[in-house]
Amino acid sequence: MLTCPLCASAETPYFHRDARRDYHRCTNCWLVFVPPDQRLAPEAEKAVYDQHCNSPDDAGYRQFLSRLYTPLRERLAPAAQGLDFGAGPGPTLSVMFEEAGHPMAIYDPFYAADRVVLERQYDFITATEVAEHLFEPGLELERLAGMLRPAGWLGLMTKRVTRWETFPRWHYILDPTHVIFFSDATFEWLAHHLDMRLELPASDVALLQRKPW
Hints:
Elements: E1 14-17, E2 22-25, E3 32-33, H1 42-49, H2 59-73, E4 82-85, H3 93-99, E5 104-107, E6 122-128, H4 137-146, E7 148-157, E8 160-161, E9 180-183, H5 184-194, E10 197-202, E11 205-209
Parallel strand pairs: 4-5, 4-6, 6-7, 8-9
Antiparallel strand pairs: 1-2, 2-3, 3-9, 7-11, 10-11
């Protein structure tokens, strides 16, 4: 039996198989994940990301990011400092927050791999369309939560499983770089595990707030 990459449970029975890979579902945190030996190699993974043409000049992309940007900005104090984790080849969300008066740092393992920014504390951290790519989500999300100042926010944007029976037809699993899939129950488990408050303002947005002490 495979170990869940989020909660480390060994209760992860087979859930689904398609033409390319297998999917297991953890019965503790309800994360669905692809076995490690069926993930892309780093070079192949980056080749997919290199095809993205995102840019701050793209109004449509800004509108897409506003699903996270708008509810998170409403909860921030003026000049709150942030980190965009997994900014990708065309950082845009960080630009949007900077335009609103929030100093930003960026990090991406392929395009902005300055790990110095991971040694600082922030008022908020964003990760848009990042969570579904994480090989070690338990480790990564705990680290991000630990980088928040008291009352800080962790804003995640990733599509959630809404109905188990429609998972085999879900377009989100077609991307070969998507290797883990959250549901509402998964985020509820995560919030409890991290001792954070959870809000789900949209079908693909999760906001977790650290306690103010």
